[in-house]
Amino acid sequence: MRFMHISDLHLGKRLREYSLIEDQKYILDRILDAADEQKLQAVVIAGDIYDKPVPPAEAVALFDNFLYSLSVRGTAVFVISGNHDSAERVSFGGRIMDKANIYLSHVYDGNIAPVRLHDEHGDVCFWLLPFVRPANVRPYCDDEINTYTDAVAAAVSRMDINTEERNVLVAHQFVTDSERSDSETSVGGLDNVDAYVFEKFDYTALGHIHKPQFAGKNIRYCGTPLKYSLSEASHQKSVTIVDMGRKGETEIRTVPLKPLHDLREIRGRYDELMLKDNYVGTAVDDYIYAVLTDETEIVNGVQKMRTVYPNIMELRYENSRSRAAVGGHAAKRGKTENELFGELFEKVNGRPMTPEQEKTVEDLFSEIKGENL
Q1: How many CB atoms lie under 10 A from the CB of residue 16?
Q2: Taking CA atoms, which of 70, 142, 191, 337 is between 20 and 30 Å from 321?
Q3: What are phi and psi of 304, to 5 degrees?
Q4: Average of per-residue pLDDT values in the chain
Q5: How far apart are CA 230 and CA 247, in angstroms?
Q6: Dist. CA 149–CA 275, nearest whole Å
Q7: 312: closest CA among 342, 279, 344?
Q8: How many angstroms separate the Cα of 332 from the Cα of each of 231, 324, 328?
């Protein structure tokens, strides 16, 4: 059984003021090319189909065309909703889609049955678990559900898993200690899920994390097909290909993806970056984050740089003044909350706080930190 694992398409996403819909259409076509080359039995899409719960019409049309293109190839498709998706919208029409071998996760209701595909070694069971929070699982379990680990463990415990068969879980969660990017949303580590909850599965196809990586044995994030933040500039984007032989025989590899426009950082003096000899032969229409090292700011720098780099996303400076500012912020971080608030109060009101006001602020901060509770 050979299947492709992809996730986090984020269709409809905008990067700064730029729509990425053409980039997304291009990369979905490259994914279809890879599907043809790999001769797949299935494609797994592990959540965050869209960038917003109510996606723009062009994003819905793009995904509709992608699903149709896979279905006419005779490829089974498994889709779950992620934290950026509306579970209700993703599940719409699911019972009809089943007849076309397109399987959509439903809104979590405590019951998940496997979808079975058959090969020469028997059945492979695909379990579709949409993104869940503790509140989604709590109504269906007698156990106490406080953490995300509790929630996913409880959801898995309600699956009637035959460990003699080959089992694939499709899920969309943060696994503890996974390497994150700036473009992912999190709640300060409270949404972590410990990897042990996936131990019954021969392969766990995860979405949520944008960098391709393993989160445990046969527990994998395939990553996004495109770079969605500067923190992803060094990532090699790809699709993951999984070959499942007999029980216990799982091979995992990647097929690289080349985007329509790369996302990268350029750095140097303004005159160096704008010198023809230095940019000819480079992909100047990439999505560019520029760092200028000039001591003097360039007037209308972004507009001027766009004459060479039309898709410039951001321009910032790294020089003696910016380093001094960073040092100033670092010094402020060494002050107490009371001291920082006092500086703000004096800046806004033109006078320092009275002793009574200082005592009130001190009490408030103590209460916030729980010291008086």
Answers
A1: 10
A2: 337
A3: -65, -40
A4: 90
A5: 40
A6: 54
A7: 279
A8: 26, 12, 6
CATH number corresponding to 263-321: 3.30.160
> Helices then strands (H, E): number in the chain?
12, 19
> Looking at residue 331, what is its pLDDT?
54
**Token pair listed for 352:** 């320092």
**For residues 61 and 84, what is the distance between their CA atoms, to the nearest angstrom?**
18
* Domain formed by 2-256, architecture: 4-Layer Sandwich (3.60)
Name the 3-class secondary structure at 70. helix
CA gap 42, 25 in Å, rounded:
20
- 150 backbone dihedrals φ, ψ, rounded to 5°: -55, -45
Element (H, E) at 37: helix 21-38
Strands (E), 37-195: 42-46, 76-80, 102-104, 115-119, 122-128, 166-172, 174-175, 192-193
134, 151 Cβ separation under 8 angstroms: yes
Could you give the CA distance from residue 154 to residue 142 in angstroms, rounded to a whole number?
9
CA distance 225 to 236: 9
> Residue-wise over 122-145: b if at least 16 C-beta within 10 A, else e?
ebbbbbbbbbbebebbbeebeeeb
Ranges under pLDDT 50 in the chain = 371-373
Coil, helix or strand at residue 188: coil
74 by Cβ neighbours in 10 Å (0-12 / 13-18 / 19+) ranks as: exposed
For residue 28, the model assigns a pLDDT of: 98
